[in-house]
Specification:
By secondary structure, the protein is mainly α. 48% of the residues lie in helices and 4% in strands. It is built from 13 helices and four strands. The protein has helices at 18-25, 39-44, 58-63, 70-81, 123-130, 143-164, 169-177, 184-205, 221-240, 255-270, 291-297, 302-314, 321-327, and strands spanning 51-54, 87-90, 103-105, 118-119. Strands 2-1-3-4 form a four-stranded mixed sheet. The longest helix has 22 residues, at 143-164. The radius of gyration is 24 Å and the shape is globular. It starts with 17 loop residues before the first helix and ends with a helix.
């Protein structure tokens, strides 16, 4: 009598081959340490001065000019406030041991020494330890609330303008696209990736785009800019209450002053020539997308005055003051 074998179970559509399934089951195969610094980074680092790696151009880095990236500029300004002497070198996130700029490479004690890089998360402590002055700490209970204005509405407006506004495509390319590749296709792909990443960030945190909202929704740029105007007005009002000209009435600028400067400087320098005008009525729509005008029109000009005062304090005393002032 013939025997019949059990029928093979039907194959599932798009079934993953067993060798690949085993690979997926054991993923990740290896947990890698942080990236090692490129060899040229150690050779380029001075034995006399620590080196701060930021987004910049070769020319502006040589002059110690402000970085065009808000996060880099915040720490560049704070290190100068703390009296840390350092040099600047241009870099990218890919060259950073943690995948993020800025980071600082301490001085080498010998030609063969390879000091460990200091990531941005430790730059505050580094500045206080090695600086010649100690910027005051902010103890005001309102600090978190005002810091949130920088981290969400003001940052979102910067992301919206630089990465998603066609008027600033040339600026985006100059900062982050052209230095990476000369290939038309690579540049196009990178531009698309950066714009989508910015869109995702805005939708996660911005007005009408909270984490509970589907990320497929389009960014409401009017809401983004309206929220930024209100945030800048709040900062200007806070500054107007200070008798010292620094935030929270501090006797000298703090890390919060550096954080505000990182945005106001870039908005005033790079985004003051968009077409249109800012409507000043509360709740009105920003027709121009002109972030520089938003800074200037906040309050009675407190933020613009604050920016100028801090720029003069930190940069105009340099030997390249005339060049830098022309680029402020």
């Amino acid at each position: 009598m013939a025997t019949t074998s059990a029928a093979a179970p039907p194959r599932k559509w798009m079934q993953v081959p067993r060798p690949l399934q085993k690979l997926f089951d054991t993923f990740p195969l290896v947990s890698y340490d942080v990236n090692a610094l490129p060899a040229r980074a150690q050779s380029a680092t001075s034995g006399d001065l620590p080196t701060l790696y930021v987004f910049s151009t070769e020319e502006e880095a040589l002059l110690g000019a402000p970085s065009f990236n808000p996060s880099c500029l915040k720490w560049q300004a704070f290190l100068k406030l703390a009296g840390v002497k350092f040099q600047i070198l241009p870099s990218t996130n890919h060259a950073s041991p943690t995948g993020v700029l800025p980071f600082i490479l301490p001085t080498r004690s010998s030609p063969t020494d390879a000091p460990s890089p200091i990531p941005s998360s430790k730059l505050h402590d580094y500045a206080l330890k090695y600086g010649t002055s100690n910027p005051p700490e902010v103890s005001d209970l309102r600090l978190d609330a005002y810091q949130a204005l920088l981290d969400v509405p003001i940052r979102n407006a910067w992301l919206q303008a630089l990465y998603r506004d066609p008027d600033y495509t040339d600026l985006l390319d100059r900062f982050y696209i052209t230095p990476v590749s000369s290939s038309y296709w690579v540049r196009g792909a990178l531009r698309h990736h950066l714009r989508r990443a910015a869109e995702t960030e805005i939708l996660k945190t911005g007005p009408g785009g909270a984490a509970s909202t589907a990320l497929s929704l389009l960014v409401d740029e009017h809401s983004v800019y309206r929220a930024a105007v209100k945030a800048l007005e709040a900062l200007a009002t806070l500054l107007s209450e200070s008798k010292t000209g620094w935030f929270f009435g501090a006797e000298s600028p703090t890390i919060f002053d550096a954080s505000v400067f990182a945005y106001t400087h870039l908005m005033l320098k790079y985004m003051s020539d968009a077409k249109g005008e800012v409507e000043e009525e509360e709740g009105s729509i920003l027709a121009s997308r002109n972030l520089g005008s938003m800074v200037r029109s906040a309050g009675s000009g407190e933020l613009e005055q604050h920016h100028r005062r801090l720029f003069e304090l930190l940069w105009l005393a340099d030997s390249n003051a005339e060049f830098l002032d022309g680029k402020a």
